[in-house]
Amino acid sequence: MSRILIKNAHILTMDDNRTEIQNGYVVIENDLITKVSDGNPSGFFDKTIDAEGNIVMPGLSNTHTHLGMTLLRGYADDMVLSDWLQKEIWPAEAELTAEDVYWGSMLGCLEMIRSGTTAFCDMYFFMDETAKAVEKAGIRGCLSYGMIELFDEERGNSELIKGERLVKEWQGKANGRITTMYGPHAPNTCSKEFIARAKKAAERDGVGVHIHVLETEDELNTMKKNYGVCSVHHLDSVNFWNTKGDDLTAGVDVLAAHCVWMSDGDIKLFAEKGVTVSHNPISNMKLSSGAAPIQKMLDAGVNVALGTDGCASNNNLNMFEEMKTAALLQKLVTTDPEALPAKAVVEMATRNGAKVIDKKTGALKAGNKADLIVVDTKKANATPIFDAYSHLVYSAAGSDVKTMIVDGKILMEDYLVLSMNENEVIEKSKACAIGLAKRAKDKKEANG
Ligand SMILES: CSC[C@H]1O[C@@H](n2cnc3c(O)ncnc32)[C@H](O)[C@@H]1O
Ligand SMILES: [Zn+2]
């Protein structure tokens, strides 16, 4: 049995009472938190980390990523989503190899460890490679193979087989750090019959579903033109949003990324059904997709989490930037400075996201898994701190994350990443990115 003590900590538990403890300690035994308290700890510990008054909190959950896309960081910027995908990203992705996705995923894991993200929800291709990277890096990943049916039944059949294989092979692996979902890409790239089949498979296998929804006004208009209703109501007709099973006991998580063009009726439906929304403000701003009505969703009782989206539309995986942007964007579009206060943003980035990844994470309390970070407050940008939530959202940087523990294992200590060779990951992923871009350029030139 391994016992770790973290002491002298300013603890944000993010538990149901949002308990905040000054000068507290956390005890970790193997992969679990066994005590969170103030006062003096007792007993023998294999390892003691003196937090020296720094903030100790649950690790951040990035609920929408395409990790292999780290290799396409900066590959095509300043374009509208449809052109960006069709003219640049999809042709480049057609050249991806398994090795590219492995090193791109390792690079993504490294960036997440360095900026405080302990868990993420991914949708992409060559997902065995992302799973291997998660195994090695030590973080927590909820992985889905991104299925693009393109309204072609035969293609849909083979996509579903690939999605199923990922679930069968990886669900619960790496001591439960790897979980899986089905990932039908979007209502404007997949038929509702196909999306309903993916949902049924998820219910059968007891895993969730992850989908892009109402990201752009163009999607909303296309759906209305083709089906007479928006994407949300289109999929509601096949019970896609139900998170409870038929007997209202068992259920599966439904994770909807973007949700920018939601009507009041869509929001009400999501609240009733228990859908989790992944809000991706930086990607939405960069692609000019719009501003999701997040304060309205929270007021209606929707579980809203945060995500970065892929590195080609953000262009990083830094959840501290995402938190700040989320807060500022809501204040801007509502013209209400009270919209999306700092504490609500930290909730989105921790406990709300954790609900769809692992319900035993997202809060520091006895019995939960030991996934946490230490945020350095001995910094100019952390002086003074009147309110820890305000500091995290408006002033802190991802690079202030000093130490990270996931599943009871120390992945970064005092800014030193322990679970991988950082230089090797940077060099190998850079070489893969250069090769990928060259292949894509050669293919483009050959096609005229
Ligand atoms: C089917 S795997 C994921 C697929 O989605 C593409 N993608 C990346 N960012 C976005 C976005 O913001 N909206 C829609 N699709 C996106 C990615 O390039 C893969 O092809
Ligand atoms: Zn996406």
From TrEMBL:
The processes (GO biological process) annotated in the record are: S-adenosylmethionine biosynthetic process
Q: Name one GO molecular function term.
A: metal ion binding
Where in the numbering of this chain does the Amidohydrolase-related domain appear? Answer: 55-411
SUPFAM superfamilies under this entry?
A: Composite domain of metallo-dependent hydrolases, Metallo-dependent hydrolases
Binding locations of substrate: 93, 155, 185, 215, 309
Q: Which UniProt keywords apply?
A: Hydrolase, Metal-binding, Zinc
Give the highest taxon in the source lineage. Archaea
Q: Where does Zn(2+) bind?
A: 64, 66, 212, 309
Name the EC number(s).
3.5.4.41, 3.5.4.31, 3.5.4.4, 3.5.4.28
Q: How is the cofactor bound?
A: Binds 1 zinc ion per subunit.
Q: Which reaction does it catalyse?
A: S-adenosyl-L-homocysteine + H2O + H(+) = S-inosyl-L-homocysteine + NH4(+); 5'-deoxyadenosine + H2O + H(+) = 5'-deoxyinosine + NH4(+); S-methyl-5'-thioadenosine + H2O + H(+) = S-methyl-5'-thioinosine + NH4(+); adenosine + H2O + H(+) = inosine + NH4(+)
Copy the pathway line from the protein's UniProt record: Amino-acid biosynthesis; S-adenosyl-L-methionine biosynthesis
Q: Name one Pfam family in it.
A: Amidohydro_1
Q: Which CDD domains does the UniProt record give?
A: ATZ_TRZ_like
> What is the required cofactor set for this protein?
Zn(2+)
The protein's enzyme class: hydrolase
- Other comment: SAH is a product of SAM methyltransferases and is known to be a feedback inhibitor of these enzymes. As a result of this inhibition, organisms have evolved efficient enzymes to metabolize SAH via different pathways. The pathway found in methanogens differs from the canonical pathway, it uses the deamination of S-adenosyl-L-homocysteine to form S-inosyl-L-homocysteine for the regeneration of SAM from S-adenosyl-L-homocysteine. 5'-deoxyadenosine is a radical SAM enzyme reaction product which strongly inhibits radical SAM enzymes.
Family according to the record: Belongs to the metallo-dependent hydrolases superfamily. MTA/SAH deaminase family.
Q: What does this protein do?
A: Catalyzes the deamination of three SAM-derived enzymatic products, namely 5'-deoxyadenosine, S-adenosyl-L-homocysteine, and 5'-methylthioadenosine, to produce the inosine analogs. Can also deaminate adenosine. The preferred substrate for this enzyme is 5'-deoxyadenosine, but all these substrates are efficiently deaminated. Likely functions in a S-adenosyl-L-methionine (SAM) recycling pathway from S-adenosyl-L-homocysteine (SAH) produced from SAM-dependent methylation reactions.
How does this chain assemble? Answer: Homotetramer.
Name of the protein in question: 5'-deoxyadenosine deaminase
* Species assigned in the record: Methanolapillus africanus
